[in-house]
Input
Amino acid sequence: MSASNLPAEASALLGRLGVPAGLVTGGARPVASPITGEVIAHVHDAGPDVCAKAIDTAHAAFLSWRSVPAPRRGELVRLLGEELRAAKADLGLLVTLEAGKTISEGLGEVQEMIDICDYAVGLSRQLFGLTIATERPDHRMMETWHPIGVVGVISAFNFPVAVWSWNAALALVCGDTVVWKPSEKTPLTALAVQALYERAAKRFGDAPAGLSTVLIGGREVGEALVSAPRVRLVSATGSTAMGRAVAPILAARFARALLELGGNNAAIVGPSADLDLTLRGAAFAAMGTAGQRCTTLRRLFVHDSVYDVLIPRLKAAYASVRVGDPREDGVLVGPLIDAASHAAMERALSDARAEGGAVHGGERVIVAGQGVYVRPALVEMPAQTAVVLRETFAPILYVMRYTDLQAAIDLNNDAPQGLSSSIFTNDVREAERFCSVTGSDCGIANVNIGPSGAEIGGAFGGEKETGGGREAGSDSWKAYMRRATNTVNYGSSLPLAQGVKFDI
Ligand code: NAD
Output
C-alpha cells in the first residue's frame, strides 16, 4: 500500500462512516497519521461558545432522557452496537490510520465497543437497588438509583474510541447525557463514532438533541468540561499529569471524578512458570500497541532460577519482531504516535544506561515518510532505579532478577501507579499470595496472563497515581448514577430511629 494514498484513504473511510466533509476539511487543526506523519485532515476546534452551548444542550437533553425507561434507553445503545458491527472494518481501519495500531488491534478496539454496548443493553434491565431491614415497625427502607446528569468524557490517544464507549454506553442506559472531548491527536475516529451514534439515534426516533456530543480541541476544551457546573461527572483518561490538573478543579466544585491515569505495570515470573506461555504473554503485553497501552508491561521480575532460560528467548523475540506499517500482514509493532514520544523514549533509555542498564534494541527503524518507528527495547537493570519507576509511554521493558517472592511483590507495589499486574506461576500458593491482601496492590492482578488486554465484564481501573476510577463491567455503572435511600412509613404511628422521643 503506497504511503501517498493515506489522505485519500482516510477521506474515503470518513465518507463511508458518514462524517460530513466539512468537519474534516478547512479547519485550523491538522491531523497527522503516525504511519507516515502525513497530514490526512484538518478539523475545526470547538471555541468556548460552542462548548458552553453543547453543555447547555446536553443538560436540556438530560431533563427529558432521565424520564425515559431504562430498557428503552438500552434500545438506543443496542442500535449503536448494530451500527458499530456494520462499520467495524471501516472504523477499525480508521483507528489504524489515526492511532497507528495494527489492523487486528484496530478491529479489536471496535469489538470492545460492541461488547460494552451488548453489556449495557443487558444492564438497562438490571439497574437495581437494595431493600434494607429497618428497625421501625411498618416501615420499608430501600435504595433507588437515579441518573446523575451531564457526563464529560476526556479520552487519550491510545484508545481513541473504546474509552468513549466504556463511558457512553453505561452513561446512556443510566439516563445521563455525554459530552466527549477526545484526544487532539485522534479527532477523526471521534467524529466517525459521533456519525455512527447519530445513525443509531435517527433509527431510535425520539432521542433528544444533545444526548451525545463530541467537542474537538485541545486541553482548553477539556478544561471547559472540567469547570462547567452542569457537568456532574468527568471521566478523564490520560496521563497522571492531566489527572493532577483536573482533580482539584472537580473537587473544588464537588463534582464527581472518574480518573483513569498512567500505569507502570509489572509481571513476576516464578520458578514454576510455564516459560512458553510466559514468553508469549510478556511479549504481547510489552510490545503490543508499540508499548502504548496504559496496561503495557513495563517491568518484569524474573526468578533467578529461570532468568537465564527466559531472558535470552525474550531478547530473541525482541530482535525478530516485525516493526513496520501497521496495515501490513505480519507486522506486530507499528509506529509511535509522534516525535515527542520518541524523544521521551530516548531520554528514558539514556537514563537507564546511566543507572546501570544494558539496553537491547530501542533503535529507530526507517519505514515510511516521517513516521516514527522503533524496535522495542528490553533493558536489563541491576535494580528498580528511578527510570524504572517512571511511566515512559513507549515500548521499553525493564527486566530484573529476584529470589524472594515477597520482595518481588514489594517491588511490584513500589511503583507510584497501581493499574495492572501479573504473575506467571504454576504454584497455587504463589498465585493466591499475589492475588491476596498482601499481594499486588493494583486494580488488576492476573495469573498466567499478561497485564494488558482486559475484558469489558470486569471493572477496569487502578489505584494510587492511576486515579482510583473504575469503568466498564461489574458495578462500575454506579459511578454514573446517584443513590437515594428511601424510608417509607406505611403505618399510622411515627416511631423515631434509635428510640428517640419527641412527643408534642
Ligand atoms: P494526555 O494526558 O496527554 O491527554 C489525555 C487527554 O487529556 C487529552 O484529551 C488531552 O487533551 C486532555 N487534557 C490534557 N490536559 C488537560 C487538562 N489540564 N484539563 C483537561 N483535559 C486535559 O495523555 P495521552 O498522551 O493522550 O495518553 C497517554 C497517557 O494516558 C498515559 O499516561 C497512559 O497510561 C494513560 N492512559 C490511561 C488509561 C487508563 O485507563 N488508566 C487508558 C489509556 C491511557
In short: Residues 103-123 form the longest helix (21 residues). The chain has a mean pLDDT of 97. The chain has two domains: 6-261+467-484, 265-458. The radius of gyration is 24 Å.
